[in-house]
Amino acid sequence: EILVQDGRVAWRDQSVQPVVALELADLTARVTGVTWPFQGPLGIRVQGQPPGGGQLGFDGRVALDPVTIEGRARAQGAEVGPYLAYADIPARILGRADFDLAVAMGSGEPRRVTARGEAGAAGLDIRDGDRTLLRVDRARAEGVDVDWPRRVTIRDAALQRPWVLLERDRQGELSLKTLLAPRRRGRAGAPSGASTSSDEGPLRLTVRRIAGE
Question: What is the pTM of this model?
Fold first, then answer.
């Protein structure tokens, strides 16, 4: 067992572009099941302050070979921007997020992430470069069901002071939808035009009910 109090962790991930560099402060963590060599998943309970303030926490299990994650992730007032590289979408997103989600991540290619629970945001601003396409003072989503990068389903969404710019590109697609869809990337070394698992289809976003004020 490993216990950490008042810790600090620096994280740098060069497997995504742009490179993610984060520092988690005021870290409290407990890791169980630690052996050498590693023989099974680790039990992890961690909470700390992410870049820009707020709180992030995770309680669950992490296996290292292959890497798989399963547990509950929580956030309160955490900035969205530092983590956008993992979503691999063209949009620039500003704002702070709250969520309470049961999450799981497998080790396939592309890496599949599922999440279910509730989420919210404050000062949400979705941009195409410096141009705002969607702005919401506060947003709340219940019945969130994510199977990334295939689909996102939201049962109920409540928006305070929403503003949206709707326009279509030359192919007839909504610009906002294109900005939020994961980029299509081929496997390293795959021939040009080859079919890859990341090209299975566009992200399907479904919101069953929206209430605004």
Answer: 0.79
